[in-house]
Design brief:
The protein is built from four helices and eight strands. It has 152 residues and is of the alpha+beta class.
């Protein structure tokens, strides 16, 4: 596994950034950097099951099977990825999945001034997905910044 570490300064409070991360409509805006139509099903509280989904060209769900490992409002969210969704089918037990699962995606929101938040991402990824995420995550962080700052 490789570790992806990125950060961005957002001119908004941690509470506003947190809202942009977990609010359904706002999530859809910033996560479109990964794939148009991305959304989530489930909850953001510790222990909640959550699915990160997009619809593929065949009209089937694809994405990640996950759970919220930690939720400390408005400072930290840890997502534990447990498997894939491919063509609408969840896979948490195949050899391809058990080579990397569980893996973690962590968001830290650090108040640096009254209306400024340092958003830090650290994420486990396989060698095969590292370059893709290094290309997509910076775009997603810029969109998250824009969505968060719209609420001021």
């Amino acid at each position: 596994m490789k570790k992806l570490n990125l950060e961005i300064l957002i001119h908004a409070t941690p509470e506003s950034v947190w809202d942009a991360v977990i609010d359904d409509a706002k999530y859809r805006q910033w996560s479109s950097a990964f794939q148009d139509g991305s959304y989530f099903e489930g909850g953001w509280n510790k222990g909640d099951a959550i699915r990160f989904i997009a619809i593929n060209m065949e009209g089937q769900k694809e994405g990640m099977v996950s759970e919220i490992a930690e939720n400390k409002y408005p400072e930290h969210i840890s997502i534990r990825h447990l498997g894939f969704i491919s063509n609408g089918i969840e896979d948490t037990t195949s050899e391809a999945v058990t080579k990397w699962a569980p893996s973690y995606e962590n968001y830290s929101l650090i108040r640096v001034e009254e209306n400024k938040t340092l958003f830090k991402l650290d994420m486990d990824t396989t060698e095969g997905y590292y370059n893709m995420f290094m290309e997509l995550w910076p775009k997603a962080l810029i969109k998250l910044k824009q969505v968060s700052e719209q609420t001021l």
